[in-house]
Design goal:
Elements: H1 2-16, E1 22-35, E2 48-60, E3 63-69, H2 75-82, H3 100-107, E4 114-116, H4 122-125, E5 135-138, H5 143-150, H6 161-164, E6 170-173, E7 188-189, E8 196-200, E9 209-214, E10 220-223, H7 231-235, H8 242-248, H9 252-268, E11 273-275, H10 280-286
Parallel strand pairs: 3-4, 4-5, 5-6, 10-11
Antiparallel strand pairs: 1-2, 2-3, 7-8, 8-9, 9-10
This protein binds zinc ion.
């Protein structure tokens, strides 16, 4: 009897980790046609891919939280102001842009009260000003990039003044104050129930973060930002091509270490879906907003 009781208690506790209504919707705001060899070393020059610019909407009970914002309503003005001319051939997007805010408004979904960024690059932070009043969570390691932007630094490997300089942004420091998690040395459990857990994946930028989601069904998803640009690159651990590493990876060794950790957790948990921020293959499999993954 006691055994049965302790089993039930344990089962309930395990269930509690994902008992609340936790869902994910991938909001595709824009795309860019590229060939695979532009994304990673060893990529196929004849294989055309679509890069996504996505925001990831997490519904946790009554709270709506974005991980990355995709391209926002003012991306054209931001790009004209802050993308350096010589970087423009490498960093582009195809029209049309359908910002996350417009898609949410059309579906009557809102308000978004929290945003977290995998990192502060332009194609992830562009929609921040579409969600005034939302808390914006970023690790302290990423904040110097924001400060640099406030002092006028701009370009593909920086944050952009047009996106982050507004004094109206309600910044919150995301501290990795929880224990090691799935092979990463620390973590931050955003809602305290194990459903939304951030891990440090520094390298692509000084404060790049990954996000483990455990949805209401128990399904697990790992959002890895721009540590890699495609799930194809993860298969053999291939780094981004040389030019891209020079332009956008802050620390190549740290980025390689982050890729190694992602591959290790993927090998250990084959049911875990790893989703790079720009990867259309894994995102097509999840479907797009207004579809919810539960
Ligand atoms: Zn990106």
């Amino acid at each position: 009897m006691l055994r049965l009781l302790s089993f039930i208690v344990l089962a309930l506790a395990t269930l509690g980790a994902h008992a609340s209504d936790v869902r994910l919707a991938v909001i595709k705001t824009a795309t860019l046609k590229v060939t695979e060899n532009k994304l990673f070393v060893g990529g196929d020059a004849s294989r055309e891919l679509r890069n996504n610019f996505s925001a990831f909407l997490i519904r946790h009970g009554d709270t709506l939280m974005l991980s990355d914002t995709g391209l926002g309503s003012h991306v054209k003005e931001q790009y004209d102001q802050d993308m350096r001319w010589w970087q423009r051939p490498f960093f582009r997007y195809d029209e049309p842009v359908v910002p996350a805010q417009a898609q949410l408004a059309a579906a009557g979904v809102g308000p978004v009260t929290q945003s977290a960024l995998s990192h502060a690059h332009w194609d992830h932070a562009s929609g921040l000003d579409d969600f005034p009043g939302a808390q914006v969570w970023l690790p302290k390691e990423e904040m110097p990039m924001v400060e640099d932007a406030r002092h006028g630094k701009r370009g593909a490997g920086s944050a952009w003044p047009s996106q982050v300089a507004s004094p109206a942004i309600d910044w919150h420091l995301l501290a990795f104050d929880h224990p090691a998690y799935e092979g990463f040395e620390a973590s931050h459990d955003q809602f305290g129930d194990g459903s939304v857990v951030f891990v440090p994946m520094f390298g692509h930028t000084p404060g790049s973060t990954g996000l483990f989601l455990t949805l209401g069904s128990g399904r697990r998803i790992f959002l890895v930002g721009d540590v890699v640009w495609s799930s194809g690159a993860l298969k053999d651990g291939a780094p981004k091509i040389w030019a891209a590493r020079q332009l956008v990876d802050h620390d190549a060794d740290q980025t390689a270490e982050a890729i190694r950790k992602i591959r290790a957790v993927q090998a250990r948990l084959p049911e875990l879906l790893v989703v790079p921020a720009h990867d259309s293959v894994s995102q097509d499999a999840l479907g797009y907003f207004p579809n919810w993954v539960r």
